[in-house]
Amino acid sequence: MKYIRISLFFALVMSLVLSISSPAIAAEEGSCGLDATWRFEDGTLTVSGKGLVTDICWYEFHNRILKVVVEPGIINLPNNAFQDCEFLTEVILPDGFTLIGSFAFHNCNSLGTVQLPATLGHIGQHAFSNSGITGITIPGSVERIGTSAFDNCEKLLRVTVEEGVTYIGASAFHGCKKLAEITLPDSLKIIENKAFESCSSLQSIVLPQHVTVISAQAFQGCNSLASVTLSPKTTTIDYNAFAQCYALRSISLPPTVQTIQGLSSALEEIHISDLTAWCTAEHSYKNHCLQNAGLYLNGELLTDLRIPDDCNAISAHAFSHYGKLKSVTMPEGFTSIGDYAFQNCHSLQSVSLPCSLRRIGDSAFAHATNLKSIEYGGSFNDLKKVEINGGNDALWNNYLQVSTPETTTFSVYYYMVILALACLLQLGVLIACLVIYIRQRKYPFL
User: Fold this and answer.
1) For the chain, is the Cβ count within 10 Å smaller at the N or the C terminus?
2) Residue 218 near residue 197, CB atoms below 8 Å
3) 254 Cβ neighbours under 8 A, 6+ residues apart
4) Residues in CB range of 63: below 8 A, 6 or more apart
5) Confidence class of residue 286 from pLDDT cuts 50, 70 and 90?
6) Own/partner pairs for 325-328, CB < 8 Å, 24+ apart?
7) What are the distances in angstroms from CA 174 to CA 126, 148, 202, 326, 330?
8) Which residues in 204-242 are b (16+ Cβ under 10 Å) and which e?
9) DSSP one-letter code for 56
10) Cα-based torsion angle of the residue sequence 258, 263, 267, 272 in order, rounded to the nearest 10 degrees
């Protein structure tokens, strides 16, 4: 009798469990737009109809969604559509689909690969951030990749960006630690700040010809990046663009570069083809790229620097911390040395300054501890006209040779007057002697 009661109780409990769970097993459905509907069944959420999806009505199932199927006719997924669906593994999008909203697949940790249709026009910010995707091809119909669209996709191995894409947003692939392969199209024009920051497995990058600006921190922390090919039209390497790229030992800069603020201090070789371009480019006070590197002009290591005749100024920090520099010669017509231009050039021994020089900037030669010879092409009066700012004690603590004597109008006039007076004095003495001689002859008329 006791066993019969236990069996009846167990059967009653099971019937209650089945009655409670049966609604979850059954299909759920509803409307999610003017002409759009959704249906959830057996782990698959299907979006059907046509036009825009405007409502998210399936969030209560987000921990049970394994697959998403968007049927032809639906053109978008709204913001946050499947955010935090941590068990979602597969997404199928149809031809004609155009828009993935912001945070649409954010935190979908189990998501593997997604085939994006050729009609897709927009990927919103954080659309796939923190997701588990392993590879992605961005179709050319997507003109702009949104901010942080694939941020911290730590399983992402490869990215192919097809022809037609022009813009990669800020932090678009930031923190994709396993990203080792990326192909960029010729149509690409802009790579925003931190776009590939901390992609620590990326080994090489070829930047298309229209990418003229390497934005701030674009490749910062890419520890394995060993090869960079810049566009021949590059104008700007912004702040910390290649900071902490410890594997990057050599880089070639085109003569079009006007701003150099973000080269790695781990560089061993910097190759240039235009010395004037390097001298006049804007250099950051934090960019110590020459600290360990040699500067090569057309393959020749620069140790004895001769400023080109067409260069009349050196910009601030241009040769700061350059340890391989031994001598500097500036041509006549050169006018200005920028602030900190030769700061911490510990191997610098001699400098030749032209008479045309008009300004020596703050600490231009600070800590040039081995500077022994300074030759100035003008006179001391010319030197007085040169603006010499503070922090340049090395100029005076070492031998300063002025090669040209005083030739000013005043000094020439002065010497001519002295010479004339001397002549008059000699003439007076001669006349006096003549008078005395005549008197001694006793000429009465004297």
Assistant:
1) N
2) yes
3) 230, 231, 232, 233, 234, 273
4) 85, 86, 87
5) confident
6) 326/350, 327/303, 327/351, 327/352, 328/352
7) 11, 7, 12, 41, 45
8) ebebbeebbbbbbbbbbbbbebbebebbeebebbbbbbb
9) -
10) -10
The pLDDT-based confidence of 287 (bands split at 50, 70, 90) is confident
Of 334, 335, 342, 340, the residue nearest 295 (C-alpha): 342
In the block, residue with structure tokens 């979908």: 108
Note the pLDDT of residue 23.
Answer: 45
User: Which of 143, 43, 157 minimizes the C-alpha distance to 98?
Assistant: 143
CA 86 to CA 100: how far, in whole Å? 18
- 280, 190, 171: which is closest to 231 by C-alpha? 190
For the stretch 228-263, pLDDT in tens is 999 999 999 999 999 999 999 999 999 999 999 989
| Cα separation, 26 vs 270, whole angstroms | 67
With b for 16 or more beta-carbon neighbours within 10 A and e for fewer, the 328-337 pattern comes to bebbeebebb
Place of tokens 């005549």: 438
Pairing of β 44-49 and β 28-31 = unpaired
Q: Is residue 431 within 8 Å of 404, Cβ to Cβ?
A: no
Instruction: Report the alpha-carbon distance of residue 184 to residue 358 in Å, rounded.
Output: 47
Q: How many CB atoms lie within 10 A of CB 129?
A: 25
Tokens encoding 397: 């603590």
Asked whether the CA dihedral 433, 437, 439, 444 is positive or negative, the reply is: negative
For position 2, what pLDDT does the model report? 42
What is the C-alpha radius of gyration for the chain, rounded to an integer number of angstroms? 39
Give the contacts of 237 (CB within 8 A, at least 6 positions apart): 214, 253, 257, 259, 260, 261, 262, 263
pTM value? Answer: 0.81
> For tokens 């900190």, what's the residue?
340
156 burial type by CB count under 10 A (0-12 exposed, 13-18 middle, 19+ buried): buried
Asked whether the beta carbons of 332 and 302 are under 8 A apart, the reply is: no
Q: HSE on the CB side for 51, CA within 13 Å?
A: 9
Would the pLDDT of 89 be above 90? Answer: yes
pLDDT tens digits for 109-128? 999 889 999 999 999 999 99
Q: In what order do the strands lie in the sheet with 294-297?
A: 250-252, 269-272, 294-297, 300-301
Instruction: Please work out, in degrees rounded to the nearest 5, the angle formed at the alpha carbon of residue 312 by the alpha carbons of 311 and 317.
Output: 85
Measured CA to CA, the distance from residue 358 to residue 321 in angstroms comes to: 24
Q: What is the pLDDT confidence band of residue 404, given thresholds at 50, 70 and 90?
A: low
